[in-house]
Amino acid sequence: MRFIKMHGIGNDYVYIDCFRETVSEPEKLAIHVSDRHFGVGGDGLILIMPSDQADARMRIFNADGSEAQMCGNGIRCLAKYVYESGISRKPEIAVETLAGVLSLQLITANGVVEQVKVDMGMPRLRRQDIPMRGAGDRALVEQLTAGDREFAVTCLSMGNPHCVIYVDDVAQFPVAHYGPLLERHAQFPQRTNVEWVERLNRREIRQRTWERGSGETLACGTGACAATVASVLNGKTDRTVTVHLLGGDLEIEWAADEHVYMTGPAVEVFRGDWSH
């Protein structure tokens, strides 16, 4: 079975073109191919599939085999493959996901996709839409205890759940310790992604992410969007922000139409055959 390895600022996935290949047990395959010692290595598996309502359909499986609703970095790479492989040569394409059908604008040079701008839709701020247990309609600066610490969290959904926490020095924060505790906190019935954010100024933030089902990753597109929305809601930044992640930068805008727009690169690393 042919595969493609791609990444969006270090958030890397193994892709299968299901216009040409058949995958029968994607949950098991995701676990095997994601293994960085015995597999291809990656943060998960993404299937590029036909759709009856868009140019392509994306299914994403985390490294632990669980299926996710969306991946901002992953969908940019999917769009690059869809365009460059000829599945669709339109400058703007639609991709079906479990979070809905998203519109992506392709920025190309000499037939190669270099950047992708994704309309991520409107953030979902109601507690029941995250989903998150507790009282009140929204979770803004809510106190949440994990292990030996209490955190002030702002939670929302970008098609998948996010928990945003502000810290003074994100580089030194023990993400690997508190990430699993918050991911599986009883308040989140479907688990959650966790973003630790350091505010730099009105137009820049620095972020690290613990991804649900994958652990800490070099970047998280939906997480960058969630962090931007949370920063606006908390009065920390303007509505257009550069998000500095471990793997690189994303430009995020929470626009006047209330949609969140994410712009960033997509890179193909290599192709190969999976014979297991």
Structure commentary:
By secondary structure, this protein is of the alpha+beta class. Helices cover 16% and strands 44% of the residues. It has four helices and 18 strands. The protein has helices at residues 26-34, 72-84, 175-183, 221-233; strands at 2-8, 11-17, 44-49, 56-62, 67-68, 92-97, 100-109, 112-119, 139-146, 149-157, 161-166, 193-201, 204-211, 215-217, 240-245, 248-254, 260-265, 267-273. The chain has an 18-stranded mixed β-sheet that branches. The protein starts with a strand and ends with a strand. 46% of the residues are buried.
User: Quick one: biggest sheet?
Assistant: 18 strands, mixed
**Helix and strand pattern:** EEHEEEHEEEEEEHEEEHEEEE
Residue share in helix: 10-25%
Head-to-tail CA distance between termini: 9 Å
Radius of gyration of CA atoms, rounded to a whole number? 18 Å
Shape: globular
| Beta fraction | 35-45%
Class computed from helices, strands and strand pairing: alpha+beta
How many DSSP H or I helices? 4
Number of strands: 18
User: Kindly state the mean pLDDT as a whole number?
Assistant: 97
Instruction: Give start-end ranges of low-pLDDT stretches.
Output: none
